[in-house]
Amino acid sequence: MYPVLFQIWGFEFYSNAVILFFWIIFSSIFLMKNVKKYWLSINFLNDYFYILVISFFLFWRLWEVFLNFSMYLKEPLKILYFWDGNFSFFIWIIWVWLVFYILTFLKKENFLKWIDASFLPFLMWIMFISIADFMAWANYGLPTNWIFWIVFGSPDVKYTLPIHPVQLYEFFAVLMIFFIVKFFSKKKRFAGVLSSFWFFLFFVTEFVLEFFRANIDLMIFWFKFHQILFWVLAFFSLVFFIFKSHRNVDIYAYKK
Predict the structure, then answer these.
(1) Is residue 147's pLDDT more than 50?
(2) Helices 119-135 and 15-37 meet at what angle, rounded to 10?
(3) Is residue 180, in this structure, part of any structural domain at all?
(4) Which of 157, 188, 206, 229 could link 152 by a cystine bridge, Cβ 3.0 to 4.6 Å?
(5) Is residue 80 part of a domain?
C-alpha cells in the first residue's frame, strides 16, 4: 500500500492527508446542497467556520495525545501531524457535536436539522477514512481463510497470514448506508428522524465490523468495549428514531 503517496522537494504527502483534503472538498459541496434543502442559514457556517474547523482537528487528536502524552511531550510537533491517522472517533464525535450544539443553541438554529443535513459529509468521512486506513496499513483485520483476504507486506502489521480487509468491508458497508439514507432522505421527514436513522445503521455496522478487526481492546465477556459502546449508541439511536417518527413537527416547517 501507500502510506506516503508522493514526495515534493523532500516533503512527504501522506495518503491520510491527501484523502482528508479531497473529503473537505466533496463534503463541503454536499453540505452546501443540504443547507439549501433544509432551509438552514449559510451565515451560521460563515460566522463559526473557524471555530468548527479548529474543534474538528483539536478533538480529533485529544484522546490520542492523552494516551501517548509522554511521546508527544518529547516531540510536541507531532501533535500537529493530523495525517498519521491516530485519533479517537468517540472523543471526536462527542466533543464536536457538543460544540456544534452549543453554537446552534446560541444562534437559535435547529440542531437536529443541522445533524440531518450533515449525513452525507459524515458518511463520506467514514468512507474516506476507510480507504486511508487501507492505504496506510491501519485498522487491519484478523487472520482469515475466507475467499476475501489480503496480505500486507509491512512490519507495522503483525500478521503475515491472509487477513480480513476490514477497511474495505467498512467502505462498502458505509457506501450501502449512504445510498439507503440518500433514498430515505428524498421524502419529507421530521427533524432528527434522518440523523437517528443513519446513526443506527452506522453503529450497528461498526458493531459487526469489530468482530473482524485486530485492534487491541478491553474485553467485557465476549465483546470488545467499543462494541458495547456501539450497541448502546445504536439502541438509543433506534429509540430516538421511533420517538421522533411520531412527532408532528416537520423539518420543512422551520422555513424562515
Answers:
(1) yes
(2) 170
(3) yes
(4) 157
(5) no
- Of residues 235 and 103, the one with the higher pLDDT is 235
Q: Indicate whether 63 belongs to any domain.
A: no
Contact 107, 47 (CB under 8 A): yes
More confident residue, 227 or 156: 227
Contact 17, 85 (CB under 8 A): no
Buried b (16+ CB within 10 A) or exposed e, 232-253: ebbeebbebbeebeeeeeebee
Number of structural domains found in the chain? 1
Using only C-alpha atoms, the chain has a radius of gyration, in whole angstroms, of 19
Pick the range with the lowest mean pLDDT from 146-155, 176-185, 194-203. Answer: 146-155
Cβ atoms of 111 and 105 within 8 Å: the answer is yes
Percent of the chain with pLDDT over 70: 73
Q: What angle do CA 46, 112, 201 make, to 5 degrees?
A: 115
CB-neighbour burial class of residue 66 (10 A; exposed 0-12, middle 13-18, buried 19+): exposed
| Separation between Cα atoms, residue 234 and residue 55, nearest integer Å | 25
Q: Would you place residue 214 in the very low, low, confident or very high pLDDT band (cuts 50, 70, 90)?
A: confident
For residue 212, give its domain range. 4-40+110-254
